[in-house]
């Protein structure tokens, strides 16, 4: 969906914040990228991919939606998990509209019900979004929709597919009128306000998620140490943190093959960001139990709220 320049805020224009709330892996990041038309959030089949509360900005002729992609709500098993869930829960009270995102291709589960229970007393408008409609058997669709309607009575319900884009325009048209009247909060051509280093770190972590399995993905953090312009080329130095030596071995791989693949994939994405060649140097560092250390979490941007 194209954003476009608006010289002046038209009469009746609306602007505000929309929080995407849901369990891990319901498609929040995929929807964010679909709505703004560019990659602003990393995606992965691995649960709990999103760690930061990212903002994507979508500007239409009548409204500007600041979309917050929050970490998936789950039962935390370490301090990092507790802070991620708290970030998502805090977002509910800090926005103008809540989009409760569900995997509409499967029946309502206990995790979904927990999320919806959190929203029962929400003072802001709540829109219930059933994602992954491209995976739904048409004969089951009515029954699935009914089960979600019963779980959150009174909420507006919309079905769509973040993967294909089907129904997403209707979602935008439904969200806009729920925002308060007001001017643009960002220039019309802005699609994200996340810091450059955060985006670069996330692009590296995305490649780790794609290339590794089991215990490695959730134990990884990425820190961008340096970004330098070197003529037409951008040079980036980054550290990939893991908790155990065995995980370091997996990330490096035989003869450095795994780290090379991770770096190559990340570099291709970074070249789109900088619109030019990128030199990327990666180091892997073992930091035992970093997910349990408040100081380390704060350093990585996961401070308590």
List the helices and strands and how they pair.
Layout: E1 14-21, H1 28-36, E2 54-59, E3 63-69, H2 79-93, E4 97-103, H3 110-118, E5 126-131, H4 138-151, E6 156-159, H5 168-175, H6 196-211, E7 221-230, E8 233-242, H7 245-252, H8 257-274, E9 278-286, H9 294-299
Parallel strand pairs: 1-3, 1-4, 4-5, 5-6, 8-9
Antiparallel strand pairs: 2-3, 7-8
Helix pairs in contact: 6-8
Can you tag this structure with a few keywords?
alpha/beta; single chain; 305 residues; 22% strand; three-stranded mixed sheet; Rossmann fold; globular; six-stranded mixed sheet; disordered N terminus
Major β-sheet strand ordering: 2-3-1-4-5-6
Strand content: 15-25%
Q: Give me the number of helical elements.
A: 9
Beta-strand segment tally = 9
Name the CATH architecture of the largest domain.
3-Layer(aba) Sandwich
Question: What is the CATH superfamily label of the largest domain?
Answer: P-loop containing nucleotide triphosphate hydrolases
Structural class: alpha/beta
Helix content: 25-40%
Mean pLDDT: 82
Give the low-confidence spans: 1-7, 45-51
- How many discrete structural domains? 2
**Topology-level CATH name of the largest domain:** Rossmann fold
CATH class of the largest domain: Alpha Beta
Order of helices and strands: EHEEHEHEHEHHEEHHEH
**Largest sheet, strands/sense/barrel:** 6 strands, mixed
Q: What Rg, in angstroms, do the CA atoms define?
A: 20 Å
Distance between the termini: 33 Å
């Amino acid at each position: 969906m194209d954003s476009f320049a608006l010289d002046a805020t038209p009469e009746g224009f609306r602007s505000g914040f929309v929080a995407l709330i849901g369990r891990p892996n319901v498609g929040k990041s995929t929807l964010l990228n679909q709505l703004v038309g560019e990659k602003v959030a990393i995606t992965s089949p691995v649960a709990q991919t999103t760690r930061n509360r990212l903002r994507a900005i979508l500007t239409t002729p009548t409204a500007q939606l600041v979309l917050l992609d929050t970490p998936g709500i789950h039962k935390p098993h370490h301090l990092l998990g507790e802070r991620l869930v708290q970030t998502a829960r805090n977002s509910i009270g800090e926005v103008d509209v809540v989009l409760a995102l569900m995997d509409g291709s499967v029946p309502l589960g206990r995790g979904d019900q927990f999320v919806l229970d959190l929203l029962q007393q929400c003072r802001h408008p709540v829109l219930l979004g059933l994602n992954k409609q491209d995976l739904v058997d048409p004969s089951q669709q009515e029954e699935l929709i009914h089960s979600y309607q019963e779980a959150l009575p009174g909420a507006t319900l919309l079905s769509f597919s973040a993967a294909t884009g089907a129904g997403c325009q209707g979602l935008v048209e439904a969200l806009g009128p729920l925002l308060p009247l007001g001017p643009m909060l960002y220039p019309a051509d802005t699609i994200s306000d996340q810091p450059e280093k955060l985006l670069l770190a996330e692009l590296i972590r995305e490649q780790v998620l794609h290339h590794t399995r089991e215990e490695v993905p959730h134990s990884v953090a990425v820190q961008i140490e340096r970004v330098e312009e070197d003529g037409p080329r951008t040079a980036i130095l980054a550290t990939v943190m893991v908790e155990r030596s065995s995980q370091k071995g997996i990330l490096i791989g035989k003869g450095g093959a795994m780290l090379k693949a991770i770096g190559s994939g990340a570099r291709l994405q970074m070249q789109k960001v900088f619109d030019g060649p990128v030199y990327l140097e990666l180091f892997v560092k073992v930091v035992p139990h970093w997910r349990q250390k408040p100081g380390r979490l704060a350093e990585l941007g996961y401070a308590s709220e």
